[in-house]
Automatic annotation (TrEMBL):
It comes from Xenopus laevis (African clawed frog). It is an enzyme of class 2 (transferase). The gene is b3galt2l.7.S. This is Hexosyltransferase. Residues 50-155 are annotated as: Disordered. It comes from the Eukaryota. The lineage of its organism: Eukaryota, Metazoa, Chordata, Craniata, Vertebrata. One of its GO terms (molecular function) is N-acetyl-beta-D-glucosaminide beta-(1,3)-galactosyltransferase activity.
Length: 434
């Protein structure tokens, strides 16, 4: 306790001492005629507090040199005030980065090249450089409704063509040891292995037809889903059956024209000795025997410039975007198509394959493949041949063995239903009257 009292006594004495010294220092400093505030900028002139009656200068006033007036005293400038901020209206503004180097006038700037002039990167579906259309064959002008003005840019719905697509799967040996009378070009989806198997077991079975040589191949593009895995499965399927033709474009509905042109190219390059070709979809019933013996007739000379099927005439493109078959004016500007054979199934002489393939290199391709075949025929000045009535059916007909025995195609038969119908047809057809 005694120590604590001693501590507080000295503490109080220290406080009093400090206070006294502070008061004395303040009193002394107040007597100085130069106040610290006089050092502030723009402070009014300081008038020293002198008593005029008692002030008796010892020098002649003209010779007297008083001390500098405190306002005129040049104190050591404060670093922060050494360079006062200049008037914004007088200072030279710093150049705006966006104005320092003005952007070039777009009219003077070198424009980006037209996409049709750029060499595209190898995207299978977009890989195709656009042909210089100024060098293409001009469109015929006999019928104003068929004029096809060509442009240097490609609409998204226009298949990339012409371009030398590469064959990824190619059964070259199919026609090396024989000259088939009939080649079946079957259009289908790359992922639809079941439909291909069904056709191999039914009307696409080459061993069914012993009096004439028939070859079946399936036309596909690159799978859209699980591309690598699906492609490996296709390669395994090809090793087993050896009947798949594939090029490096994407397998989409709007690339059906590319599939058909791939078939034309394959026939002209790898099966030129064939007599006839049948292009057919994979959801069809096909009576190959009636096609061969009643329409094509092997005992007669092979036709030339022959193209037949269910002929569609006096139709035009659908312009509504809601339609599956929508074709904008940018793709096909005319209001009518030339006559064409309905896409589910048509037959033609093998010489037409090269002619169609060649002319397709010179005109704009449209996504509706059957309509495009009609445009090619128009360019070639080869009209489609009218078949006997009611043998090509682009719609579904209920199965009747004897009725089907006098038809070539019936639409909308596939899978297990096609297997069932084919089994009955193949075993019972001989009982039908001619």
């Amino acid at each position: 306790m005694a120590g604590e009292r001693t501590f507080w006594r000295y503490f109080k004495l220290s406080v009093l001492t400090i206070f006294s010294l502070s008061a004395f220092y303040y009193f002394i400093m107040r007597n100085d005629y130069v106040h610290i505030s006089s050092l502030l900028p723009n402070f009014p002139k300081f008038k020293p507090q002198l008593n005029p009656p008692e002030f008796k200068p010892q020098l002649n006033p003209p010779e007297f040199k008083p001390k500098p007036n405190p306002p005129e005293f040049k104190p050591k400038p404060n670093p922060s005030e050494f360079k006062p901020k200049p008037n914004p209206s007088e200072i030279k503004p710093k150049p705006n980065p966006s104005e320092f180097k003005p952007k070039p006038n777009p009219s003077e700037f070198k424009p980006k090249p037209n996409p049709s002039e750029i060499k595209p990167t190898p995207n299978p579906s977009e890989l195709k450089p656009q042909t210089n259309y100024t060098e293409l064959k001009p469109q015929p002008t006999e019928n104003p409704g068929l004029t096809l003005p060509l442009s240097t840019t490609r609409h998204p719905l226009t298949p990339p063509y012409p371009y030398p697509y590469k064959f990824l799967l190619n059964p070259k040996e199919k026609c090396q040891k024989q000259k088939p009378f009939l080649v079946l070009l079957v259009i289908g989806d790359s992922h639809d292995a079941n439909s291909r198997l069904t056709i191999r077991e039914t009307w696409g079975n080459e061993s069914n037809y012993r009096d004439v040589a028939v070859v079946t191949v399936f036309l596909i593009g690159i799978p859209r889903v699980k591309t690598e895995t699906s492609q490996k499965l296709l390669e395994e399927e090809m090793k087993t059956y050896g009947d798949i033709v594939q090029q490096d474009f994407m397998d989409t509905y709007y690339n059906l024209t590319l599939k058909t042109l791939m078939g034309m190219e394959w026939i002209s390059k790898y099966c030129p000795g064939a007599s006839y070709v049948m292009k057919i979809d994979n959801d069809m019933f096909l009576n190959v025997e009636y096609l061969v013996h009643h329409l094509l007739q092997p005992g007669l000379p092979v036709h030339q410039n022959y193209f037949t099927g269910y002929i569609v005439a006096n139709t035009g493109p659908l312009r509504g975007k809601e339609y599956k078959w929508y074709v904008p004016k940018e793709v096909y500007p005319n209001d009518t198509y030339p006559p064409y054979c309905s896409g589910p199934g048509y037959a033609f002489s093998a010489d037409m394959a090269k002619k169609i393939y060649d002319v397709a290199q010179t005109i704009r391709v449209v996504p509706m493949e059957d309509s495009f075949m009609g445009i090619c025929l128009y360019e070639l000045k080869i009209p489609p041949t009218n078949p006997p009535p009611n043998i090509f059916n682009g719609h579904r007909i209920d199965y009747d063995c004897c009725k089907f025995n006098k038809l070539i195609t019936v639409h909308h038969y596939k899978g297990d239903e096609l297997r069932k119908v084919w089994k009955d047809f193949w075993t019972q057809r001989s009982g039908c009257k001619d």
